[in-house]
Amino acid sequence: MMQQKNQQTDAVIIGAGPVGSYTALRLAMLNVKTDVYEEHTEIGLPSHCAGHISIRSLKAIGYYPLPKGIIENTFNAANFYSPSGTKFSVRLKTPVTCALNRAKFDQYIANQAQRAGATFHLGQPVQSLRVENGYVKGVNLKDGTPVPSKITIDTEGISSRLLHQAKLKGLNGKGLVYAVETEIDQVHDVEPHAVEVYMGSNAPGFYGWLIPRPDGSAKLGLATDHGNPQTYLRNLMTKHPIAKRQVKGAKIFKTNYHAITLAGPINKAYSNGFLAVGDVASQVKPTTGGGVIFGLTCGEIAAKVAKSALNSGDVSAKTLSAYQKHCNKTLNFDISFMLRLRQFLNSLSDERWNSVLRFCNRLGVDKALSDVEEIDYQGRMITQVATKPAILVALGYFGLLYLLANP
Predict the structure, then answer these.
(1) Does one domain contain both 80 and 116?
(2) Contact indicator for 96, 54 with CB cutoff of 8 Å
(3) What is the CATH number of the domain that holds 332?
(4) How many CB atoms lie within 10 A of CB 380?
(5) Looking at the domain assignment, is residue 3 inside a domain?
(6) If 0-12 CB within 10 Å is exposed, 13-18 middle and 19+ buried, where does residue 21 land?
(7) pLDDT grade, residue 6 (50/70/90)?
(8) Which of 51, 79, 121, 339 has CB atoms 3.0–4.6 Å from 100's, for a disulfide?
(9) Which of 4-18, 109-123, 131-145, 159-173 has the lowest mean pLDDT?
(10) How does pLDDT run across 195-221, given as a tens digit for each residue?
(11) pLDDT at residue 269 above 80?
C-alpha cells in the first residue's frame, strides 16, 4: 500500500538492505508508522556481501533456522593459508557459520517488515535530507518529492553524504577496503563444509575467501586496502599454490564490487531527528568486515530509542543520544579488541604469516579453539578461551610480533 508522500510519517528509513528492513520491522512491531525508500527496484539486488554469518547470532535474533532456500551451506571448519601455501585449520565440533543467499535473506526480512505494517517504496532513491531549524524532518526524493517525517533513519550502507547533511562526521576513509565478490561454477579439492581463507599479500589489508556450495559452485572474493581488487583476485586464482588448484578451470558468472569499512563505529551516529545504523555508521567487525549481525543488533536499538522519542514528542539529539550509549555498551569492548587484532594482522609480512601459521599448528591452537561457538563478539570469545595454555602462549607470541612490527 502506497501513501501520499507529502503526508508526514513517523519514521523514514533510507535503504532496504537487511539492516533497513529489520529496523523497519522492529519499528512496525512497536506500532510506528514506517516508510522505507530503496533506490533499487528489487530488494537484495545487487548483492554486495558473501553472506557468511554466525549461526549463534542468527539464533539470538530469531533468524535460525530460516525458510528453505535461504541457507546455502553450513560450516564447521576454516582453512587459513599463507601466500606460499602454509596451512592452518580450525575444526569445530558443530557447525558455527552458514552461507546465506543474501538476496533471499534480504527479501525475507523485508517481507516480515511489510507484514508488520511497514511500507516499502522501491526504485525511489533519496536525494537529500529535509533540514529545518537544525532538525532533520524527512527526506527529498531524487524526483523532487518531499517526504516529511518525525524521525529519519539512514541505513543506506557505505556512504557519508547524508551524514554530512545531518552535520555528522563521515566514515574514516583510511579504514576502507575495496572488495570484489564473484561466483564461480566449480571448485576442486575443497572440503564441503569448510571455508578457505587466503592471507597476506594475496589481499593486502584484508584477506581472500572461498565459500563452497553443495552443488560444487562457490563464492570467491577478496578485499584490499590499495590497488585493484580484480588484479589481486586474478593473481590469487592463477598464482597462489593452493587457490589456483582449487579454482582450476572455474568460470566466473557473477561479479560485484563494494567497499567495506573497518575503522570501527563512527563516534556520533545521531543528531536532531536523525539516526545512522549499520555500515553507514561503520557498525562492522574490523577483523572480518561482517556488518549484518552488528547492523541488525543496532537496528533493534534504534527502533526502541526512536519509539521512546516519538512517544515523548522529543526527537532532539539529546534524547536520541541514548541510541549511541546502548550501541557503545553492546559493541565497544569487542570492537576495541578487533581493531587491535586488525592492526596486528596488517602488520604481518608474508614471511611472518608462514611463521604464525606454523606456530599455531605446533602449539595446538586448533584444538584449543575446537569448542568455540561465539565468533561475532570476538573480544568475549578470547576472554572465554584465554585460560587455555595454547591460547595464552599464542597471545604472548602474537603480542611480541606486534611490538616488533610497531616499535
Answers:
(1) no
(2) yes
(3) 3.50.50.60
(4) 12
(5) no
(6) buried
(7) low
(8) 51
(9) 4-18
(10) 999 999 999 999 999 999 999 999 999
(11) yes
Confidence (pLDDT) at 1: 36
- Over range 327-353, report the average pLDDT: 95
- Answer yes or no: are the C-beta atoms of 298 and 281 closer than 8 Å: yes
Copy the grid coordinates of residue 315: 526527537
Q: Do 242 and 387 fall into the same domain? A: no
Give residue for cell 533506490.
Answer: 39
**Amino acid letter at 237?**
M
Residue 73, pLDDT score = 98
Q: Are 32 and 114 in contact (CB under 8 A)?
A: no
Note whether 167 and 178 are same-domain residues. no
**Residue the block writes with cell 564490487:** 257
Q: Are 268 and 317 in contact (CB under 8 A)?
A: no
Residue 379 contacts residue 338 (beta carbons within 8 Å): yes
- Its domain, for residue 214, covers 74-96+174-261
| pLDDT > 70 fraction of the chain, expressed in percent and rounded | 97
For residue 313, report the phi and psi dihedrals to the nearest 5 degrees.
Answer: 75, 15
Q: How far apart are CA 74 and CA 57, in angstroms?
A: 14
Per the CB < 8 A criterion, the answer to whether 20 and 13 are in contact is: yes
Residue range 377-407, pLDDT digits in tens: 999 999 988 889 898 888 887 877 766 666 5
